């Protein structure tokens, strides 16, 4: 009797899963198509490149200092030897700490990337919920998260539907922000008009300013 109850439970669970309408989305593809995300990612990559450049310079300085110490330590004695050795050891420790703090598993790069993606992931999640409700989807798979999809009929791929919904929301936000910018621009134009009415820089002054800028 107990086995029969387990069988019935499993059977209905499987039947329920198969009764669900399944959809698939590609969140990585969606992220790559969001202009705001690409701009933020570009700024982050620029910061990472700067940190990498700083680290390379630090490592080059360390190599020069270590090589100089190795070549000269036979001539050093007492406190001078200890001081030079400590400089090399401290610089090596500084490099290790910098690498760990910025590029480690819990470093600044991963934290910044997580902070960067989270608001966009929240937007995508809300859009997926809206699309799921509209299309009566019981299960939504993300094919960008190591899910091997051997074959997928296009009608079950809701990536474009989610992206379209996000695009509409993005357009609304951009229009709202551009409206406020336009207003600010008009105010600035009015201020500029008042300023130019008070006094204009003549051509000789402009040339003088241009010449001094070139000399700099």
From TrEMBL:
<feature type="compositionally biased region" description="Polar residues">
    <location>
        <begin position="177"/>
        <end position="186"/>
    </location>
</feature>
<dbReference type="InterPro" id="IPR024930">
    <property type="entry name" value="Skp_dom_sf"/>
</dbReference>
<dbReference type="GO" id="GO:0005829">
    <property type="term" value="C:cytosol"/>
</dbReference>
<feature type="coiled-coil region">
    <location>
        <begin position="41"/>
        <end position="75"/>
    </location>
</feature>
<dbReference type="GO" id="GO:0051082">
    <property type="term" value="F:unfolded protein binding"/>
</dbReference>
<dbReference type="GO" id="GO:0050821">
    <property type="term" value="P:protein stabilization"/>
</dbReference>
<feature type="region of interest" description="Disordered">
    <location>
        <begin position="173"/>
        <end position="216"/>
    </location>
</feature>
<dbReference type="InterPro" id="IPR005632">
    <property type="entry name" value="Chaperone_Skp"/>
</dbReference>
<keyword id="KW-0732">Signal</keyword>
<keyword id="KW-0175">Coiled coil</keyword>
<dbReference type="Pfam" id="PF03938">
    <property type="entry name" value="OmpH"/>
</dbReference>
<comment type="similarity">
    <text>Belongs to the Skp family.</text>
</comment>
<protein>
    <submittedName>
        <fullName>OmpH family outer membrane protein</fullName>
    </submittedName>
</protein>
């Amino acid at each position: 009797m107990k086995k029969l109850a387990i069988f019935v439970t499993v059977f209905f669970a499987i039947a329920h899963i198969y009764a669900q309408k399944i959809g698939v989305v590609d969140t990585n593809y969606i992220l790559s198509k969001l202009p705001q995300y690409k701009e933020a990612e570009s700024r982050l990559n620029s910061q990472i490149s700067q940190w990498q450049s700083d680290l390379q310079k630090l490592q080059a300085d360390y190599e020069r200092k270590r090589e100089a110490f190795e070549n000269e330590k036979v001539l050093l004695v007492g406190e001078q030897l200890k001081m030079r050795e400590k400089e090399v050891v401290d610089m090596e420790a500084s490099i290790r700490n910098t690498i760990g703090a910025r590029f480690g598993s819990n470093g600044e790069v991963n934290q910044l990337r997580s902070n960067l993606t989270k608001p966009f992931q929240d937007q995508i999640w809300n859009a997926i919920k809206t699309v799921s409700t509209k299309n009566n989807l019981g299960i939504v798979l993300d094919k960008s998260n190591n899910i091997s999809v051997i074959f997928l009929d296009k009608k079950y791929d809701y990536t474009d539907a989610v992206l379209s919904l996000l695009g509409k929301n993005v357009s609304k936000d951009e229009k709202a922000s551009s409206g406020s910018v336009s207003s600010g621009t008009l105010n600035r134009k009015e201020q500029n008009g008042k300023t130019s009415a008070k006094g204009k820089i003549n051509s000789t002054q402009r040339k003088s300013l241009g010449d001094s800028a070139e000399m700099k």
